[in-house]
Amino acid sequence: MERATEDLSFDAIRPFHDEEVAPAMQRLFKEDSFHTALAYIFPEISEDEMIAKLNAIKSTSEFQREIIAPAVYSIVEATTKGLSINGLEMLDKTKAYLFISNHRDIVLDSAFLNVKLFSHDFPTTRIAIGSNLLQRPWIEDLVRMNKNFIVHRDVHSRQAYIYSMRLSGYIRHSLLNENTSVWIAQKEGRTKDGNDKTQAGLIKMFGMNSETSDLVESYNKLNIAPVSLSYEIEPCGGMKAREKFITASTGKYIKAEGEDLLSMQNGISKPKGKVHFEFSSPIEKSQIEKAFSSGIKNESVKALAELIDAIIIKNYKLFPFNYIAYDLLNQTADFSAHYSDTLKDQFARICKNELMEYGEEANSIMPYLLSIYANPVKNKISRNLINL
């Protein structure tokens, strides 16, 4: 049992308890945006029928089963060429895991993961979500009913330690006291350049608020299971590429008002091609011992982050578009055996359409878009996982 953390209440960040669902639902009914979203996702159901359906929901599990799962399946059907999954046989349905994955889409990474777990009779996970995305009160109600817990962003440096302690405590509480799995991305925010890398600070946070000073044992108890997710068509690829271009050109990028909401909408609605999840077996105690063998905490945390990187990169599924982008970016034909001229033409059209709205800037942004697709190939090459 983890040590008590009464001084760091979880109420401000945790998902809703079942008894909080009905009051939250009543608040949602008052929001026009919520009704608009429901009409978009469930066009075949009348508003009165939907309200009756929602009024009957009394728990977070019912909300996920009756509303979230059907909504996600409709998105899968409308915007993907299917979800695939591998590696679940290495996990135990009765155990809780800390799933650490790369991050490509604001909403759908965890949503797709949970419906695949659900379809294989695994419990769904609690999901970390940044407070910057909760731009409307009704969105916070919605996500907290969907087992999301809040990671506060833009915290003043004097508060950062307390917020990190509370977050760490909640994750450990969920895993060790409530036997409920947690999903969290390997770093703050989505990967904008296709170069998936785990933040050492995140790994350090996991070790806070532990009942033991034995770091190996502390991390071993978390049951860390890296997950690699791969999209055939990069969600919001044009927006990400433009952000990288502007940052490289001016030294900084300032988000426009409502940009995160637009990214959420585009991520949900635009084509994604095939989507794949690859689960690894949980990191073993011997691997953690090796990572922490230096005896220096910062070096040990960095070594564990690098171990997670190695697993995610190894298990990342490459699609033909990744190989095409690498060859286009490097003006080679090194991976031409992995694609046809037809696929190459298709990829060129996808990229052109992604950047069409940016007018004259499109040619300058194109290398950044290609890099998003090419960097997973480069990462595998650098680790001798594929050969030129």
Gross morphology is globular
Question: What is the radius of gyration?
Answer: 21 Å
CATH topology of the domain at 79-235 and 270-317: Glycerol-3-phosphate (1)-acyltransferase
Strand and helix order? HHHHEEHEHEHEHHEHHEHHHHH
Output the structural class: alpha/beta
Q: What's the story with the biggest beta sheet? A: 7 strands, mixed
Oligomer: single chain
Strand order of the largest sheet: 1-7-6-2-5-3-4
Q: What are the low-pLDDT stretches, counting only 5+ consecutive residues below 50? A: 1-7
Tell me the span between the first and last alpha carbons: 50 Å
Mean pLDDT across all amino acids: 93
CATH level 1 class label of the domain at 79-235 and 270-317? Alpha Beta
By DSSP, the count of extended strands is 7
Measured as a percent range, the helix fraction is 40-55%
Specify the number of helices.
16
CATH architecture of the domain at 79-235 and 270-317: 3-Layer(aba) Sandwich
Strand content: 5-15%
- So, the CATH homologous superfamily of the domain at 79-235 and 270-317? Glycerol-3-phosphate (1)-acyltransferase
